[in-house]
Design a protein that fits this description.
This protein is of the alpha/beta class. It has helices at residues 11-22, 74-77, 117-122, and strands at residues 7-9, 30-37, 43-50, 58-62, 65-69, 80-86, 91-96, 100-103, 110-112. It has three helices and nine strands; from the N terminus they run E-H-E-E-E-E-H-E-E-E-E-H. The two termini are 14 Å apart.
Length: 126
C-alpha cells in the first residue's frame, strides 16, 4: 500500500501496550486493531490481544510493538496515530485519525470516512 503505515504509535502508546502484554495470562503476538459498526456516531475502534496473525491482516511493527490490522479496517485507519493519554479523570488509548469526520459526545464512537482510491492514488492518506 504505497509505503504508508496504516497506523503508527506514540511512545506512550507503545509503552502501555508493552506493559499490558507483559501482564497477559497467555503468550501474545501483538495487538489487533479494527473498527466495528456501533455507537451513536456509527463506528467504534476495537482492540484485542492477538495470539497470531489472521489471514489478510496487515502487520505493523512500530516502537517494538506488533499491531495486526483487521483487513476490513485498513481504509478507515490509514494514517492514524495511536496515543495513550492520562488525565485527572481517565487513562485511555486515543486514535488521532485523519479519516474521522466526527465523534459522539460520550467519546465511545466516531464517524469515519474510508480513504478513497483517488486519495490513495494521489499518495496521501489525509
Amino acid at each position: 500500500m504505497s509505503g504508508f503505515k496504516v497506523i503508527t504509535l506514540t511512545d506512550r502508546a507503545a509503552e502501555r501496550i508493552k506493559a499490558i502484554m507483559a501482564d497477559a495470562d497467555r503468550p501474545i503476538a501483538g495487538l489487533r486493531v479494527g473498527v466495528r459498526n456501533g455507537g451513536c456516531a456509527g463506528m467504534s475502534y476495537t482492540m484485542e490481544y492477538a495470539e497470531a496473525r489472521n489471514p489478510g491482516e496487515d502487520v505493523i511493527e512500530d516502537r517494538g510493538v506488533t499491531v495486526f490490522i483487521d483487513p476490513k479496517a485498513v481504509l478507515f485507519l490509514l494514517g492514524t496515530e495511536m496515543d495513550f493519554q492520562t488525565t485527572k479523570l481517565s487513562s485511555q488509548f486515543v486514535f488521532n485519525n485523519p479519516n474521522q469526520t466526527s465523534a459522539c459526545g460520550c467519546g465511545e464512537s466516531v464517524a469515519i470516512t474510508p480513504v478513497s482510491p483517488d486519495r490513495l492514488a494521489a499518495g496521501a492518506p489525509a
